[in-house]
Protein backbone atom coordinates (compact mmCIF):
# COMPACT_ATOMS: atom_id res chain seq x y z
CA UNK A 1 0.00 0.00 0.00
CA UNK A 2 1.13 3.55 -0.78
CA UNK A 3 -0.01 5.96 1.93
CA UNK A 4 -0.23 9.69 1.19
CA UNK A 5 -1.26 12.89 2.90
CA UNK A 6 -3.25 15.03 0.49
CA UNK A 7 -4.96 18.40 0.61
CA UNK A 8 -8.49 19.04 -0.66
CA UNK A 9 -10.13 22.39 -1.22
CA UNK A 10 -13.40 23.12 0.60
CA UNK A 11 -15.60 26.22 0.92
CA UNK A 12 -13.98 26.92 4.30
CA UNK A 13 -10.41 26.35 3.17
CA UNK A 14 -8.02 23.46 2.51
CA UNK A 15 -8.11 20.30 4.61
CA UNK A 16 -5.44 17.60 4.85
CA UNK A 17 -6.55 13.96 4.71
CA UNK A 18 -4.74 10.65 4.31
CA UNK A 19 -5.28 8.24 1.48
CA UNK A 20 -3.99 5.30 -0.50
CA UNK A 21 -2.69 5.59 -4.05
CA UNK A 22 -4.15 3.19 -6.63
CA UNK A 23 -4.51 2.85 -10.41
CA UNK A 24 -0.80 3.38 -11.14
CA UNK A 25 -0.80 6.34 -8.74
CA UNK A 26 -3.54 8.10 -10.73
CA UNK A 27 -6.18 7.89 -7.98
CA UNK A 28 -6.40 8.32 -4.21
CA UNK A 29 -8.88 6.66 -1.87
CA UNK A 30 -9.77 8.60 1.28
CA UNK A 31 -8.99 6.01 3.95
CA UNK A 32 -11.03 7.48 6.79
CA UNK A 33 -14.23 7.85 4.75
CA UNK A 34 -13.82 4.42 3.12
CA UNK A 35 -13.56 2.85 6.58
CA UNK A 36 -16.61 4.82 7.78
CA UNK A 37 -18.60 3.55 4.78
CA UNK A 38 -17.53 -0.03 5.47
CA UNK A 39 -18.51 0.27 9.14
CA UNK A 40 -21.90 1.72 8.22
CA UNK A 41 -22.61 -1.07 5.76
CA UNK A 42 -21.69 -3.53 8.50
CA UNK A 43 -24.34 -2.05 10.78
CA UNK A 44 -22.02 -0.22 13.17
CA UNK A 45 -23.41 2.77 15.02
CA UNK A 46 -21.71 6.18 14.65
CA UNK A 47 -19.49 5.00 11.77
CA UNK A 48 -17.78 8.36 11.28
CA UNK A 49 -16.82 8.62 14.93
CA UNK A 50 -15.66 5.00 14.96
CA UNK A 51 -13.60 5.53 11.82
CA UNK A 52 -11.88 8.49 13.48
CA UNK A 53 -10.70 6.07 16.17
CA UNK A 54 -9.84 3.07 13.97
CA UNK A 55 -8.44 4.92 10.93
CA UNK A 56 -7.72 8.56 11.81
CA UNK A 57 -7.47 11.07 8.97
CA UNK A 58 -3.98 12.21 10.03
CA UNK A 59 -0.91 10.16 9.18
CA UNK A 60 0.75 10.07 12.60
CA UNK A 61 -2.44 8.90 14.29
CA UNK A 62 -2.98 6.28 11.59
CA UNK A 63 0.58 4.93 11.69
CA UNK A 64 0.47 4.57 15.45
CA UNK A 65 -2.27 1.94 15.14
CA UNK A 66 0.03 -0.37 13.18
CA UNK A 67 -1.17 -3.21 10.98
CA UNK A 68 -4.68 -3.11 12.46
CA UNK A 69 -5.28 0.22 10.72
CA UNK A 70 -3.62 -0.69 7.42
CA UNK A 71 -5.49 -4.01 7.25
CA UNK A 72 -8.79 -2.23 7.97
CA UNK A 73 -8.01 0.38 5.32
CA UNK A 74 -7.11 -2.20 2.68
CA UNK A 75 -10.35 -4.09 3.29
CA UNK A 76 -12.50 -0.94 3.20
CA UNK A 77 -10.85 0.34 0.02
CA UNK A 78 -11.29 -3.06 -1.59
CA UNK A 79 -15.01 -3.05 -0.78
CA UNK A 80 -15.46 0.47 -2.12
CA UNK A 81 -13.58 -0.43 -5.28
CA UNK A 82 -15.65 -3.55 -5.88
CA UNK A 83 -18.84 -1.48 -5.58
CA UNK A 84 -17.37 1.30 -7.76
CA UNK A 85 -18.35 3.67 -4.95
CA UNK A 86 -16.84 7.15 -5.23
CA UNK A 87 -19.19 9.04 -2.86
CA UNK A 88 -20.81 8.03 0.44
CA UNK A 89 -23.24 10.18 2.41
CA UNK A 90 -22.09 13.23 0.46
CA UNK A 91 -18.42 12.55 1.20
CA UNK A 92 -15.84 11.89 -1.51
CA UNK A 93 -14.22 8.48 -1.28
CA UNK A 94 -12.00 8.70 -4.35
CA UNK A 95 -10.10 11.48 -6.11
CA UNK A 96 -8.00 11.71 -9.20
CA UNK A 97 -4.48 12.60 -8.16
CA UNK A 98 -4.73 15.68 -10.37
CA UNK A 99 -7.65 16.99 -8.26
CA UNK A 100 -5.68 17.29 -5.03
CA UNK A 101 -2.35 18.51 -3.73
CA UNK A 102 -0.10 15.78 -2.38
CA UNK A 103 1.84 16.88 0.71
CA UNK A 104 4.76 15.25 2.49
CA UNK A 105 3.33 11.97 3.84
CA UNK A 106 4.25 13.09 7.37
CA UNK A 107 4.05 16.90 7.14
CA UNK A 108 5.52 17.47 10.62
CA UNK A 109 7.48 14.42 11.82
CA UNK A 110 8.18 14.21 15.56
CA UNK A 111 11.87 13.74 14.73
CA UNK A 112 14.16 13.44 11.71
CA UNK A 113 17.31 11.35 12.07
CA UNK A 114 19.78 10.62 9.31
CA UNK A 115 22.65 8.14 9.21
CA UNK A 116 25.66 7.66 6.93
CA UNK A 117 25.49 3.94 6.20
CA UNK A 118 26.54 3.49 2.55
CA UNK A 119 30.27 2.76 2.48
CA UNK A 120 30.95 3.84 -1.12
CA UNK A 121 29.21 7.19 -0.58
CA UNK A 122 31.36 7.82 2.49
CA UNK A 123 34.55 6.93 0.62
CA UNK A 124 33.64 9.05 -2.41
CA UNK A 125 32.68 12.06 -0.28
CA UNK A 126 35.78 11.92 1.91
CA UNK A 127 37.97 11.70 -1.20
CA UNK A 128 36.49 14.99 -2.45
CA UNK A 129 37.27 16.86 0.76
CA UNK A 130 40.51 18.64 1.64
CA UNK A 131 42.39 16.90 4.43
CA UNK A 132 41.47 19.58 6.99
CA UNK A 133 37.75 19.02 6.36
CA UNK A 134 37.66 15.23 6.53
CA UNK A 135 35.98 13.78 9.63
CA UNK A 136 38.39 11.99 11.96
CA UNK A 137 36.28 8.84 12.30
CA UNK A 138 36.69 5.75 10.13
CA UNK A 139 34.11 3.60 8.37
CA UNK A 140 34.70 0.94 11.02
CA UNK A 141 33.81 3.54 13.67
CA UNK A 142 30.55 4.31 11.83
CA UNK A 143 29.56 0.65 11.73
CA UNK A 144 30.46 0.04 15.37
CA UNK A 145 28.57 3.05 16.76
CA UNK A 146 26.25 4.37 14.02
CA UNK A 147 26.28 8.14 14.32
CA UNK A 148 23.43 10.29 13.12
CA UNK A 149 22.30 13.88 13.18
CA UNK A 150 18.84 15.33 13.77
CA UNK A 151 17.07 17.67 11.37
CA UNK A 152 14.48 20.38 11.84
CA UNK A 153 10.96 18.88 11.49
CA UNK A 154 9.51 22.33 10.74
CA UNK A 155 11.30 22.49 7.39
CA UNK A 156 9.76 19.47 5.67
CA UNK A 157 8.62 19.84 2.06
CA UNK A 158 6.48 17.56 -0.07
CA UNK A 159 6.23 16.87 -3.79
CA UNK A 160 6.04 19.98 -5.95
CA UNK A 161 7.03 22.38 -3.18
CA UNK A 162 9.65 25.02 -3.89
CA UNK A 163 12.87 24.54 -1.93
CA UNK A 164 14.49 27.72 -0.57
CA UNK A 165 18.04 28.28 -1.76
CA UNK A 166 19.90 29.65 1.29
CA UNK A 167 21.60 33.00 0.81
CA UNK A 168 24.70 31.75 2.63
CA UNK A 169 25.73 28.97 0.22
CA UNK A 170 27.33 28.61 -3.19
CA UNK A 171 27.36 24.80 -3.02
CA UNK A 172 23.72 23.70 -2.97
CA UNK A 173 23.27 19.94 -3.14
CA UNK A 174 20.70 17.15 -3.09
CA UNK A 175 21.03 13.72 -1.47
CA UNK A 176 19.32 10.61 -2.84
CA UNK A 177 18.19 8.57 0.15
CA UNK A 178 15.67 6.08 1.46
CA UNK A 179 14.14 6.53 4.89
CA UNK A 180 11.98 4.40 7.11
CA UNK A 181 8.92 5.83 8.83
CA UNK A 182 8.14 4.53 12.31
CA UNK A 183 4.68 3.13 12.94
CA UNK A 184 4.29 1.46 16.31
CA UNK A 185 6.03 3.33 19.14
CA UNK A 186 8.70 1.52 21.10
CA UNK A 187 11.73 1.77 23.35
CA UNK A 188 14.78 -0.50 23.55
CA UNK A 189 13.59 -2.37 20.48
CA UNK A 190 15.52 -5.49 19.50
CA UNK A 191 16.76 -5.96 15.93
CA UNK A 192 14.35 -8.88 15.49
CA UNK A 193 11.41 -6.76 16.69
CA UNK A 194 12.35 -3.67 14.67
CA UNK A 195 10.48 -4.60 11.45
CA UNK A 196 7.24 -4.58 13.46
CA UNK A 197 7.86 -0.89 14.21
CA UNK A 198 8.61 0.13 10.61
CA UNK A 199 5.46 1.44 8.92
CA UNK A 200 7.17 1.70 5.54
CA UNK A 201 9.65 3.50 3.34
CA UNK A 202 9.78 6.90 1.67
CA UNK A 203 12.12 8.93 -0.52
CA UNK A 204 14.23 11.35 1.49
CA UNK A 205 16.07 14.31 -0.05
CA UNK A 206 18.46 15.68 2.51
CA UNK A 207 19.19 19.07 0.91
CA UNK A 208 22.64 20.39 1.78
CA UNK A 209 24.66 23.60 1.75
CA UNK A 210 28.06 21.98 1.45
CA UNK A 211 30.33 24.96 2.02
CA UNK A 212 28.83 26.00 5.35
CA UNK A 213 28.28 22.35 6.32
CA UNK A 214 32.02 21.72 6.10
CA UNK A 215 32.81 24.83 8.12
CA UNK A 216 30.36 23.82 10.85
CA UNK A 217 31.67 20.26 11.08
CA UNK A 218 35.28 21.36 11.59
CA UNK A 219 34.47 21.84 15.27
CA UNK A 220 33.04 18.32 15.61
CA UNK A 221 29.39 19.40 15.70
CA UNK A 222 26.65 19.80 13.15
CA UNK A 223 25.61 19.89 10.44
CA UNK A 224 23.21 22.68 11.37
CA UNK A 225 22.70 25.52 8.88
CA UNK A 226 24.25 23.18 6.33
CA UNK A 227 21.19 20.93 6.49
CA UNK A 228 18.31 22.28 8.57
CA UNK A 229 16.82 24.62 5.97
CA UNK A 230 14.97 21.91 3.98
CA UNK A 231 14.10 18.22 3.75
CA UNK A 232 11.90 16.73 1.03
CA UNK A 233 9.91 13.59 1.85
CA UNK A 234 7.48 11.67 -0.32
CA UNK A 235 5.53 11.19 -2.38
CA UNK A 236 4.16 8.37 -0.21
CA UNK A 237 4.97 5.86 2.48
CA UNK A 238 5.33 2.49 0.81
CA UNK A 239 4.39 -0.21 3.30
CA UNK A 240 6.99 -2.92 3.71
CA UNK A 241 4.97 -5.73 2.12
CA UNK A 242 6.41 -6.55 -1.30
CA UNK A 243 9.08 -3.83 -1.18
CA UNK A 244 12.80 -4.60 -0.97
CA UNK A 245 14.77 -1.49 0.04
CA UNK A 246 18.11 -3.13 -0.75
CA UNK A 247 17.43 -3.78 -4.45
CA UNK A 248 15.04 -0.92 -5.36
CA UNK A 249 16.60 1.17 -8.15
CA UNK A 250 17.04 4.83 -7.19
CA UNK A 251 17.71 7.76 -9.54
CA UNK A 252 18.21 11.51 -9.36
CA UNK A 253 17.85 13.98 -12.23
CA UNK A 254 18.53 17.72 -12.40
CA UNK A 255 16.58 19.61 -15.08
CA UNK A 256 15.78 16.31 -16.77
CA UNK A 257 19.39 15.08 -16.91
CA UNK A 258 20.19 11.99 -14.85
CA UNK A 259 22.96 12.60 -12.32
CA UNK A 260 22.64 9.55 -10.05
CA UNK A 261 21.55 5.92 -10.34
CA UNK A 262 21.99 2.95 -8.04
CA UNK A 263 20.63 1.09 -5.03
CA UNK A 264 21.20 1.41 -1.33
CA UNK A 265 22.91 -1.99 -1.51
CA UNK A 266 24.74 -3.43 1.46
CA UNK A 267 24.53 -0.87 4.24
CA UNK A 268 27.02 -0.79 7.08
CA UNK A 269 23.97 -1.37 9.29
CA UNK A 270 20.51 -2.45 8.13
CA UNK A 271 17.38 -0.39 8.75
CA UNK A 272 16.21 -2.78 11.53
CA UNK A 273 19.61 -2.37 13.19
CA UNK A 274 19.35 1.42 12.95
CA UNK A 275 15.85 1.39 14.44
CA UNK A 276 17.10 -0.77 17.29
CA UNK A 277 20.13 1.48 17.84
CA UNK A 278 18.23 4.77 18.09
CA UNK A 279 15.57 3.27 20.38
CA UNK A 280 18.09 2.62 23.14
CA UNK A 281 16.91 4.42 26.28
CA UNK A 282 14.44 6.53 24.27
CA UNK A 283 11.02 5.95 22.74
CA UNK A 284 10.49 6.12 19.01
CA UNK A 285 7.21 7.74 18.01
CA UNK A 286 4.83 7.18 15.08
CA UNK A 287 5.94 9.32 12.16
CA UNK A 288 9.62 9.48 13.13
CA UNK A 289 11.82 9.61 10.02
CA UNK A 290 15.08 7.63 9.94
CA UNK A 291 17.27 8.04 6.86
CA UNK A 292 19.84 5.40 5.97
CA UNK A 293 22.22 7.69 4.13
CA UNK A 294 22.97 8.76 0.58
CA UNK A 295 23.56 6.03 -1.99
CA UNK A 296 26.87 5.82 -3.85
CA UNK A 297 27.23 8.75 -6.27
CA UNK A 298 23.89 10.00 -4.97
CA UNK A 299 24.81 13.66 -4.47
CA UNK A 300 26.63 16.49 -6.21
CA UNK A 301 29.50 16.44 -3.69
CA UNK A 302 30.56 13.02 -4.99
CA UNK A 303 30.16 14.12 -8.61
CA UNK A 304 32.03 17.41 -8.29
CA UNK A 305 29.09 19.63 -9.26
CA UNK A 306 26.24 21.42 -7.52
CA UNK A 307 22.61 22.33 -8.16
CA UNK A 308 22.09 25.82 -9.64
CA UNK A 309 19.30 28.10 -8.37
CA UNK A 310 16.04 27.56 -10.25
CA UNK A 311 16.76 23.91 -11.06
CA UNK A 312 14.19 21.11 -10.91
CA UNK A 313 15.45 18.08 -8.97
CA UNK A 314 13.64 14.76 -9.27
CA UNK A 315 14.37 11.73 -7.11
CA UNK A 316 12.74 8.41 -7.98
CA UNK A 317 12.67 4.99 -6.34
CA UNK A 318 11.14 1.93 -7.97
CA UNK A 319 8.09 0.86 -6.00
CA UNK A 320 7.67 4.23 -4.26
CA UNK A 321 7.39 6.90 -6.96
CA UNK A 322 8.87 10.28 -7.85
CA UNK A 323 9.70 13.24 -5.62
CA UNK A 324 10.17 16.43 -7.62
CA UNK A 325 11.00 19.91 -6.34
CA UNK A 326 12.06 23.17 -7.90
CA UNK A 327 14.84 25.09 -6.18
CA UNK A 328 14.20 28.81 -5.65
CA UNK A 329 16.32 31.67 -6.90
CA UNK A 330 19.16 32.61 -4.58
CA UNK A 331 18.07 35.55 -2.40
CA UNK A 332 20.11 38.46 -1.21
CA UNK A 333 21.60 37.81 2.20
CA UNK A 334 19.20 38.63 5.02
CA UNK A 335 22.14 39.03 7.40
CA UNK A 336 25.26 40.09 5.47
CA UNK A 337 27.27 40.60 8.66
CA UNK A 338 27.39 36.81 9.01
CA UNK A 339 28.85 36.17 5.58
CA UNK A 340 32.06 34.20 5.83
CA UNK A 341 35.24 36.11 5.17
UniProtKB/TrEMBL annotation:
Tagged with keyword Transmembrane helix: no
InterPro entries (UniProt xref): Fumarylacetoacetase-like_C, Fumarylacetoacetase_C_sf
Transmembrane portions of the chain: none
Superkingdom per UniProt: Bacteria
Keywords per UniProt: Hydrolase
Coiled coil: none
One of the record's GO molecular function terms: hydrolase activity
UniProt keyword rRNA-binding present: no
Pfam families linked to this entry: FAA_hydrolase
Fumarylacetoacetase-like C-terminal domain span: 115-327
Protein name: Fumarylacetoacetate hydrolase family protein
Species this protein is from: Actinomadura physcomitrii
Lineage start: Bacteria, Bacillati, Actinomycetota, Actinomycetes, Streptosporangiales
